[in-house]
Predict the 3D structure of the following.
Amino acid sequence: MSVLLEIDNVTRRFGGLTAVDSFSGIVRRGERVGLIGPNGAGKTTLFNLISGFTPVTSGEIRFDARLMSGMKSFQIARLGVGRTFQNLRIFPNMTVFDNVSVGAIGAAGHSLWQALARNRSAAEGVSAGTWAALERTGLTGSAGQLAANLSYGRRKYLEIARALALEPELLILDEPAAGLNDTETADLAGFVERLNADGTTVLLVEHDMGFVMNLCQRVMVMASGRKIADGTPAEIGRDRQVLEAYLGTEEDA
Amino acid sequence: MFDAFFFQQLVNGVAVGLVYALMAIGFTLIFGVLNVVNFAHGEVYMIGAYAGLLAITAFAPPLFVVVLIALAAGALTGFGLERIAFRPFRRFRDEASLKSKAMREATLLSSLAVSIIAREAVELVMGSNMQPIPQEYLLLQPVEIGALTFARGQFLIFGVSVVSLLALQWLLNRTRIGLSIRAVANNPIGAMYVGIDTNRTIIATFVIGSMLGAVAGILVGLYQGTIFPGMGFTPGVKAFVAMVMGGLNSIPGAVACAMILGVSEALATNFIAQGWADLIAYSFLVITLVFFPTGLFGAARERI
Amino acid sequence: MNGSRLAPLLALGTLFAVLPLVLYASGSGYAFRVATTIGVFAILTVSANFITGTTGLLSLGHAAFYGIGAYAAALSATGLGWPFWVTLPFAGLVTAAIGILLALPTMRLVSIHFAVATLGLGEIIHVTLLNWVGFTRGPMGIPAIPGIAIPGLFKATDVGNYFAVAVVGAIAVFAIHRLTHSYYGNALRALREDDQCAETMGLDIVRLKIEVFAVSCFFAGVAGALWSHTTGYISPNDFRFNESILILAMIVVGGLGSIPGAIVGATLLLALPEVLRPIGDYRMIVVGSVMFLSILFLPRGIFGEVSALDLVRRQFGAAWRRDSRVGWR
């Protein structure tokens, strides 16, 4: 499997605080990779670096061998990287359909003149992409509802649908299972697996160990901004450094 | 060689700057505590001036009392302002609502609306003309020190400003209400959890800030000799510029930038006509917002 | 879908046939002049609503752009002798160009800071208009601006002015309606809701902001040109902060993000003082009070976008089907 995302010795400093410290890692095409670590380890910062929310202080991030760090976040999105957010950033005052359509518009591009001229095919392209994403996430029935009125669980799927409308090669999920009960979590895991089987590479951050270990083929572990382990779930479960990071060493206990 | 004229201008600039500073502090206090811009602050300045004028024409009190009356008017106005334009929008207690964009815009618009109503009301009652301050109160008597000539009004401005600033410092750092103001400015929810009455604190902030604004108004009125209903707009904007330049949450920063603004304006009249001098403040504003989004002295912020 | 064709036809019919007849029946040119003023402000408000209501960029200096358009038209008409059908688009283009230039530095600002920056820019423009006496004649203003007339064909009249404004208004509403009721409009609304997130979904928000500024300023400029030609005299006083606030109030009252709302807001806030003539002096108080009350009690305005959607959805319940024209409403 070829390498899709390559994080090359990336550091991110905020004044005196080093949130991400010389992190290197890869995600291969078609993989399901998890990123775990104690709170404050820098996982969300890393995600923000990948999606272009915040610039790297040093190092490079490459997507499909192209230099991606330094691009604006909309360019990164159009390259094929979709993401969801830890604290659910849907557009509350728009309908479900309109929310998801934003991803499709992002992929197709937006043109003032086309809108003025009522370009049929452009509109149909966006419409088709939106319905496709809605179908994949099972939200077609709620298309006309106001996003603010959706239940928490469905909002999570809405965010995923919006990212899917971008038709991304890589989907980054930031704590997708947060706040979900056991059944919902299991459903989500199955859903992500199907997405992956259909060809979407997945990178996710989660605190729910069961979710990560069952779903992901490979897991990277982060602590204090650094990568401390990288391997299969089984290997990670046995890694001493990982256990220390989460549970503390013998002396602390 | 000591350039007397230049120094004179500096002094003028400092006087103007101090007035801006008094108003800027009011802005900063309110912004710090509520995270909202009080668009009606300029009108508080105007009301302070009119209150002083009314007192003078009504019963000709000594100068010191006039200032006190302006202070009282400011306090009352601040209290009323908080009640009318800001309180009704703090319907929800959670952090997301308190800091939400919608709430900030709503209070921006509501304070804007109230400022318009206040200004127009004063105009209707008092007329839109410039009202002169009676001769006895004008502080234009020159005081000569060496080669320099100051006006008595400038001494008053210096004096009252310095006293006010010191009083404010004392209040913020040595009293309980000052402590609660700093606490709420830092973390409103946390402050609530430790038992600070945020409502009372917010009211206190408005009262203090407005008192400073009103004092600025009466000082300028006495010094310049005329007041009119629209007088609050320009100083209000300039005080706001000072606050933004100073980093939005920093009182010393706001004061410093207000001084810079005042002095720049005074010196600029050497080179450009009076009308264009107003441009300086606005240009500073835009330049600061664009190139120094965290203010000249402000703490670093990722995104404004 | 005949329903959706009917509304615009009705509106056009009212604008070009019914209303003029009613106004004519009132017997004097005054009624037409009031309607013309409302029309100009309606165009202005719709353009302001496009940037503030739909896209969420709170602009506090909109009147200044209106002023640039007015001066562009006035100066080119009196100085260069251009006819109105040249000055109108010219004013629009000049205003759009200046608008983009001035807006470029503010593209990265959000919310309050953007609002204040626009306030600053608006004031800079106003001060310039007031003080650049050599170019703009400063506080003396520009008198004797030729009206909407074609020598040899028709002279400037109150009725003629009304129809000119009506035509331009129809075009403006049509264009902006096309933009807001399209996927482009969705992109703008996403920008309003959460611009950082919208950018992560692939929207080029800087480009969108520039485009919105351009369109909004273009129509504001055209409105200004219309004002110049229909009133014959302009001065910097017409384009101060007060006017920006007036426009803002109209949008707020009518409902952010809604075109009918903007028009209704303009009509209400202008017609009210006119209808109640004796209280003309109190206009700004009325404006301020109405704005305050509507923020307090009707935070979404009369036709605010979301409540309008609610209405629509309740009417057409199951119409969000696969083959319905969901994207283009």
In short: The two ends of chain C are 11 Å apart (CA to CA). Residues 7-240 of chain C form one domain. The interface with chain B takes residues 58, 105-106, 108-113, 115-117, 119-121, 123-124, 127-128, 130-131, 196, 241-242, 245, 248-249, 252, 281-282, 284-285, 287-289, 291-292, 295-296, 299 of chain C (CB under 8 Å).
